[in-house]
Design goal:
Layout lengths: L1 H32 L1 E6 L3 H14 L4 E6 L2 H14 L6 E4 L1 H10 L2 E2 L21 E12 L25 E4 L4 H10 L1 H12 L4 E3 L2 H9 L5 E6 H9 L5 E3 L4 E11 L5 H12 L1 H8 L4 E2 L9 H9 L2 E3 L6 H12 L3
Parallel strand pairs: 1-2, 1-3, 6-7, 6-8, 10-12
Antiparallel strand pairs: 3-10, 4-10, 5-8, 5-9, 5-10, 5-11
Length: 334
């Protein structure tokens, strides 16, 4: 036993300077590079708050923020890739486009040492992307129009006859389909969504607009709705409340590094910061839900749900275009 302990101590003496040297080398190289180019779906306002936290830790690092919607980012990245050089170093998007980029050879593998501190399932096993924030898809209801006791308690309740014509859904993202496929498998997931689409749904573009219309009394219920936006409005005393399912579907926002980036050390440093305690607090300050264990959001109710572990992370399985077509076909979106 004594010999084993001595060997472990000896090994740690060799390991620690090496790990320290790696970190120092990356920091020194990032200082020389001076900047990192970030293509992201994060809005300018949210980025300013995040960038303030980044500057406090790395004052030498200039993060060149380029805001692009998910679709516009995908188009621009592929156009640049085919032209021979993606101008970004780091991409921030949902996992589905990043999976496509991975399949096309756009991304490089980088497993941040901070990834081990994230919730289970929040990173790519091959190291091509890491989750940075999450959101939970819950039922939103207007308490002036529907009592909590009468509202749907889970996703299967959406299919009940009494809710036909009373449900709204964000038509722009296929999570009601891909989430149920991830949770229940292809056959049951598609079967569920086919029934869900027959509930005379109110199709609205965007999560925020969907909630605003519910608060205004256009309909009593929103389905598969981001809890962060519902809870923010509830805290502002809008006529909005929410209920989780069991389990609750969870989406994640992710970051990835371009293959052979122009600023490789700065790219690694930025991804590390996204996942660090300081970076996660910076994201939480914008109202987002951090994925790092031990970092709280702005809502005790959401934190309690997160800590319960009763959620299912929707991870990309491929075939995003096919699922989007099925989603639109069943909803009648053209």
């Amino acid at each position: 036993m004594t010999t084993k302990i001595a060997l472990l101590l000896l090994f740690s003496l060799f390991l620690s300077p090496f790990a320290y040297a790696q970190t120092t080398e990356i920091l020194n190289q990032a200082r020389k590079e001076g900047e990192v180019v970030l293509y992201t779906t994060m809005t300018v306002g949210d980025f300013q708050s995040f960038n303030k936290a980044a500057k406090e830790k790395y004052p030498f690092l200039n993060i060149r923020h380029v805001y692009l919607s998910s679709g516009r980012q995908a188009a621009r990245v592929m156009q640049e890739f085919r032209a021979g050089r993606v101008q970004a170093d780091v991409l921030g998007n949902s996992p589905e486009p990043l999976l496509y980029f991975k399949q096309q050879g756009v991304l490089g593998s980088y497993q941040s040492p901070e990834a081990k501190n994230l919730l289970k399932g929040a990173w790519d096993p091959d190291g091509y992307w890491s989750g940075i924030t999450t959101d939970l898809l819950v039922t939103g209801f207007n308490p002036k129009l529907m009592a909590r006791a009468a509202a749907p308690k889970n996703y299967d309740d959406y299919l009940k006859p009494q809710f036909k014509g009373q449900l709204a859904v964000n038509r722009g993202v296929p999570y009601p389909l891909t989430g149920m496929v991830s949770l229940r498998g292809e056959e049951q997931g598609v079967g569920y969504f086919k029934k869900f689409a027959q509930q005379d749904l109110r199709l609205v573009e965007g999560y925020t607009h969907t909630i605003n219309l519910m608060a205004a009394g256009e309909y009593p219920l929103t389905t598969f709705m981001q809890v962060s936006k519902l809870d923010a409005m509830k805290r502002k005393e809008a006529p909005v409340d929410w209920l989780p399912s069991a389990p609750t579907l969870a989406t994640i926002s992710t970051v990835a590094m371009i293959k052979n980036p122009l600023h490789p050390a700065a790219a690694q440093l930025l991804i590390d910061f996204y996942l660090s305690a300081e970076g996660q607090r910076g994201l939480a300050a914008t109202g987002k839900l951090p994925l790092r264990r031990g970092i709280k959001s702005q809502s005790p109710d959401i934190d309690q749900l997160m800590e319960s572990g009763n959620f299912h992370v929707i991870t990309p399985e491929g075939g995003y275009d096919r699922y989007m077509k099925i989603y639109n076909d069943y909803l009648g979106v053209r």
